[in-house]
Automatic annotation (TrEMBL):
GO terms for biological process: potassium ion import across plasma membrane; regulation of monoatomic ion transmembrane transport. It is found in: Membrane. Its main location: membrane. This is Inward rectifier potassium channel C-terminal domain-containing protein. It is a multi-pass membrane protein. The keyword Ribonucleoprotein does not apply. Gene3D superfamilies: G protein-activated inward rectifier potassium channel 1. Belongs to the inward rectifier-type potassium channel (TC 1.A.2.1) family. One of its GO terms (cellular component) is monoatomic ion channel complex. It comes from the Eukaryota. It comes from Steinernema carpocapsae.
Length: 230
């Protein structure tokens, strides 16, 4: 019998189990991190339709997006926006008609965004937009759902993730715009993000775009559109 050998063997076994546990924990953390990471993407509860900005009065659909953590940054992040249309068929069943892309700049590469601070994704409602011609009442009665996705790569792990949200017609506020939330601090001379303003919107009293009927919109804009991200 050699007691020192038993002691060394027990220490080796214990150390081996601890090392394997740590390695398993690291692997699991890398696998689960993208699921947790997408929960840190924040979308506004409502989309708004209003002028692009103070100088550009073209109507635009706007959605605010933010990455609420400040440690694990994203690489190659980009946004997508789609419109899913539905209708009631002859059997009184609601069915999916199709999904139309709503270009937010991927034709020119402007859909690739830098999420170091909250941003506003703008879809300009021009002649090529599936929303063109819809007024407030037409939009509320519309049979569609807007789907937004944000995709990116977590720099720390190199794994990709996708976060998404959707908006029904009654979740689109007509004639509003988002209040600014990235403001310059006079004391610190730095820009500060005021997250308490994330959901705040303000009315645009002079917003009166041209409108048509839903049927005319569907006939004129059945396919791809080419508005942009500003």
């Amino acid at each position: 019998m050699c007691p020192p050998a038993f002691i060394v063997l027990c220490i080796q076994l214990i150390f081996g189990v601890l090392l394997q546990t740590m390695l398993a924990g690291i692997v699991i953390a890398k696998v689960l991190r993208p699921k947790k990471r997408k929960q840190e993407m924040k979308f506004s509860r409502f989309a708004v339709v209003g002028p692009v900005d103070e100088h550009d009065k073209r109507p635009a659909l706007m959605i605010r997006v933010a990455d609420i953590q400040d440690k694990l940054y994203l690489a190659e992040s980009h946004v997508r926006l789609y419109m899913a249309r539905t209708r009631v068929n002859e059997r009184n069943e609601r069915e999916l008609v199709g999904v139309k892309d709503m270009n937010v700049g991927y034709d020119s590469g402007l859909d690739r965004v830098l999420l170091l601070w909250p941003i506003i994704v703008r879809h300009v409602i021009d002649e090529d937009s599936p929303l063109f011609g819809m007024g407030r009442e037409n939009m509320i009665r519309g049979d569609f759902e807007l789907i937004m996705t944000v995709e990116g790569i977590v720099e720390a792990t190199g794994m990709t993730f996708q976060a998404r949200t959707s908006f029904l017609p009654d979740e689109i506020q007509w004639g509003y715009k988002f209040r600014p939330m990235v403001l310059l601090s006079n004391d610190r001379r730095q820009y500060e993000v005021h997250y308490e303003r994330f959901e705040e919107i303000e009315a645009c009293d002079d917003f009166v775009p041209e409108t048509t009927t839903i049927e005319e919109v569907e006939e004129d804009h059945p396919l791809h559109n080419a508005s942009g991200f500003l």
